[in-house]
Amino acid sequence: MSAPTQVLFDAPGPRARRNNVIMSVVSVLVLLGIIAFIVWKFYDAGQLEPNRWSPFTYTGIQQVLLRGMGATLSVAAVATLLALAVGLVFALLRLAPTRAISLPSTIVLEVFRGVPVLLLIFATFMIFGNRIGPFWSVVIGLTLYNGMVIAEIIRAGILAVPKGQREAAMAIGLRSSQTMGLVLLPQALRAMMPTLIAQVVVLLKDSALGFMVTYQDLLYQVNAIGRQYNNLLPTFIVGALLYIAINMIVAASAQWLERRLQSKTAGGSGPANAID
Amino acid sequence: MTQLFLSGTWGTLRLFLLTLVGCLVLGTILAAMRVSPTPVLRVTAHTYVNVVRNTPLTLVMFFCVFGLPYLDIRFAESAGLNSMILATIALIAYTACFVAETLRSGIATVPVGQAEAARAIGLTFGQTLSTVVLPQAVRTVIPPLGSVIIAMLKNTSIASAFNNRELMSAMRNAIELRGDLVITILLATAVVYLVLALILGRVFDLLEKKLVILR
């Protein structure tokens, strides 16, 4: 049994094994039934005919899809960088010892975190769209929302660092900016890496909203191709596969990064480094 | 104008409540499938969650609202009601993944002894899960579940692009009516969303206080 939650059921005995087989067969049949139904529906509606799928073999279409993917990735990349910067600033502002700084930044943070990201993108586009264009409208909308979420992640990470670390840093005479930059942040960043990357995936998916302010991203191109060749369903499926591929790559790189950082942390806490 | 916003808020609430019920049910089923003794169910739920979770909600909605009618799947005569049902299905399909993942992390926090004790007194897998493990799991995940639900409330705004009458579409109509009041209208919409999110946050705080178990 390779299931991680195997405490919920025993190692199967003869009867359980028989039941398991029955259950497996039944669920496979039900699943096959559902899949067959979907395929039949697709076939019935003429969505499986080759001419619906052949456009994807044209280099022109492939280029348009690639361009859309590039647009999605570039808007997401710029927004991620800006959101990380905004997030760091707001996390530090919220942790500031003076209430005059921490209270207003808390209010700003809660406001931007509490409204839909679509509203933020829309508002930016409505108010500044003529001057800055759709690309920056999407970037600013995504940055405002995700920056605030990231600020909360960073703040939680910093607060989760053991208290002794800060005290020790203070005791050896570091300034509070040094304590933060040299001691607390590096440890916090490692601990919150998985959550941060998950937020980047959210941001990437939210960038599809740019379609609604006429930004020509992957979703926009998918929709355009689908309408032009009258093959909406096949194009949606291809578009979904592209998005899933991008997000899986981001998630996989997150896991890789996590492993790397963990092995570093393990080395860093060893006795050799503790001396200097 | 007020009329417009009121009906918009009602539209958002209706979408929200329908999705809330649906995503909790489907999410629980998916979570149960992911820990079930039948490998086929585990793999199915895992695949579903990973595929849908990595697709943008906008695309899921596109698929449901514009794609399903191509397959002759319709639920209501009137176009408005039909697109609301389809948008609700999209929201449920999408949010259920996050509910399932949250519940699963909650199941992982329930001490092993609980499930072992349940098995030892002869409960079946279904009984163990529904009477012993899930009730405890739900209590530990109320705060993260709250953020999933609040995110879902904000995600209902995406339905505005798919012929749905709700807050964002009310906002767009209002802007068309009174182009001179753009900023006021945007702010008003933001305030309504904030109030709804705050109320929801309070509800989950109360639930947490009443139910949460600290480990």
Distance between the termini of chain A: 46 Å
CATH evolutionary superfamily of chain A = MetI-like
Largest sheet of chain A: none
* Rg from Cα of chain B: 20 Å
Q: Please give the share of residues in helix of chain A.
A: over 70%
Structure, described:
The complex is a heterodimer of chains A (276) and B (215). Chain A has ten helices and no strands. Chain A has 276 residues and is mostly helical. Chain A has one domain: MetI-like fold (Orthogonal Bundle). In chain A, helix 4 (99-114) packs across helix 5 (117-160). Chain B has one domain: Orthogonal Bundle (MetI-like fold). Chain B is globular. Classes of the chains: A mainly alpha (276), B mainly alpha (215).
Notable traits:
heterodimer; A: 276 residues; mainly alpha; MetI-like fold; 10 helices; 0% strand; flat; disordered N terminus; disordered C terminus; B: 215 residues; 9 helices; 79% helix
Question: TL;DR of this structure?
Answer:
Chain A has 276 residues and is an all-alpha fold. Chain A has helices at residues 14-44, 50-53, 59-94, 99-114, 117-160, 163-171, 176-206, 218-228, 232-268, 271-275.
How are the SSEs ordered, and which strands pair?
The complex is a heterodimer of chains A (276) and B (215).
Chain A: H1 14-44, H2 50-53, H3 59-94, H4 99-114, H5 117-160, H6 163-171, H7 176-206, H8 218-228, H9 232-268, H10 271-275
Helix pairs in contact in A: 3-5, 3-8, 4-5, 5-7, 6-7, 7-9, 8-9
Chain B: H1 2-34, H2 39-53, H3 57-67, H4 79-109, H5 112-120, H6 125-140, H7 142-155, H8 167-177, H9 182-211
